[in-house]
Design a protein that fits this description.
The complex is a heterodimer. By secondary structure, chain A is mainly β. In chain A, the strands form 3 sheets. In chain A, strands 2-3-1-4-5 form a 5-stranded antiparallel β-sheet, with helices on one face. In chain A, strands 6-8-9-10 form a 4-stranded antiparallel β-sheet, covered by helices on one side. In chain A, strands 7-11 form a two-stranded antiparallel ribbon. The radius of gyration of chain A is 17 Å and the shape is elongated. The mean pLDDT of chain B is about 90. Helices cover about 35% and strands about 15% of the residues of chain B. The longest helix of chain B has 15 residues. In chain B, helix 3 crosses helix 13, helix 6 crosses helix 8 and helix 6 packs across helix 13. The radius of gyration of chain B is 19 Å and the shape is globular. By secondary structure, chain B is of the alpha/beta class. The two termini of chain B are about 20 Å apart. The chains are: A mainly beta, B alpha/beta.
Chain lengths: ~160, ~325
Amino acid sequence: MSLEPLDPPTSSNPRVRQVEAILHGTVIDHIPGHMTLKVANLLARENDQVSIGMNLRSARMGRKGVVKISGRELDARTLSRLALIAPSASVSIIRDTKVVQKFIVPMPKLFEDIARCANPNCVTNHERWTSRMEVINADPLTVCCIYCERNFPATELVLL
Amino acid sequence: MAFLATALPSAPVQFTGRHVVSISDFSRNDLIHVLELATRMESSQSPARLDGKLMATLFFEPSTRTRLSFEAAMHKLGGKVIGFSDAGSTSTKKGESLADTIRMVERYADVIVMRHPRDGAARLASEISTVPVINGGDGGNQHPSQTFLDLYTIAKLFPELLSGERELTIAFAGDLRYGRTVHSLLTALCHFKVRLLLVAPRGLEMPDQYLHAAVKAGLVVQEIPTLQEVVAQSDILYMTRLQEERFPDPLEFDHIKHSYRITAAMLVGAPPHLRILHPLPRVNEIAVDVDATPHAHYFAQAGNGIPVRQALLSLVMGAV
């Protein structure tokens, strides 16, 4: 298996995997612990086989979550949605158990039709119109609705 | 006007066909360009005419000054006006979307002036319309033509605003959280050398995003506890209306409203050059006895809406 271990190897148990490996699909790692179920909910379709690891030990984050989806690679829209709720997560594409691509979730400049504006009086919540939010700060992730011009932390947004 | 001589030379500015949605869309040069043209409009030195042009006023919310002054400005330029001032009498009542209303009106008129209760409605309209959209107020968000006239008023009173020869002290008082005029004016003032004093009841303070923008732009910003303290040290006192519905407890509103009311007695000993502005309508926050003092400038400010809106209409329709 060429997948990277989720935990730093230790001398007593160098390659312990805390969430079952997958043959083909996508692994989302380094998810902030409290966002793990949200990420799984966001990514999983009805018939997907999903493995979830919560509160796993992480050298970088202390505790983290991992979500593995078998048989599917993420499209651009799903990656944008992931960027909004878990901007520090890493994504590995798995084919025949091998990591063929690994990257940090790309942060778009603009979130388009990804989340509902948190301002209840924003026109996009009342007209049939696409929501558009510009990223104005990466950490903590903060966006500005280009319609109502209000700034929001990403944590206040509801995904569409 | 004196302030023109002190304004920095502005680069060529392209306005034809442009929407006026948010003051954030305008550079310092743009702002000065509009003020310069408004000055020429006021002194009848501009040849701009809009004969044969039609302005549609879509007022989904009530308005007195904005609608009347846009209409007056259009008539003065030789143009004509169509529109409504009550959304209840339009197809909106039947469920027509804003987008569809705009797609129709853009075929009737050469420019659209719009007020709408939803934040961001003007931006949405501008993405659809092929004719310029001028935002006459979108919910609690923006009211750029008011900001242009506020800036014009301040620059007429204090040419130093544009020349930068002296740092002006401008105080905002009242509801700074929900008041769109103070948000827009603060955004515009970020282009100039200004010290800002803020006086607001607890819970109605200026939102952080505007404070951060002001500080980032290099403005000195201070929160001051009482109105009386800013009277003694300001060039401009910009009052806004406190709205009772913002206060969960009516008793608290009753108490607060007296603390944010300026009276003639409070102006005894104020610097002679202090001028009080207000976007109007005022309710209780400026006592009627202030009107007779030399500090009252809010009606003159409202009058400045005509040349400023003449300038905006002429610019976006390419008449100058």
